[in-house]
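We modelled the chain as a single entity of 120 amino acids. Its sequence is:
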Amino acid sequence: QVQLVESGGGFAQPGGSLRLSCVGTGFTSPNYYISWVRERPGRGLQWVATIHNVENKTYYGDSVKGRFTISRGNAKNTWYLQMDNLKPEDTADYYCAKDYDASFGRAEARGQGTQVTVSL
């Protein structure tokens, strides 16, 4: 059973940066996608970014393109979301997810989340 654990959330001022980490266990195959999704207060789940674990191809939502970077760490089953030029509207609970399907808003596995607050 895949388990994912996020860390690195916290507080930042507008224009600041944070880096989120995701560590996973229980993978039986290397061929999968890892996504970051977020849930903002009073709003539904929003897809943020995705990376293919083997091909290393990356994809971004329009609201974060050019500001956020998803990457795979050197350590096995570790991924990051580097968030730069943060905006107050980036305030949300951030989750990493395996094989997230945005059409259904579901993932094969999702972590417990880490909170990000962007404010003056």
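As a brief sanity check on the tokenised model: The radius of gyration is 13 Å. The mean pLDDT is 95.
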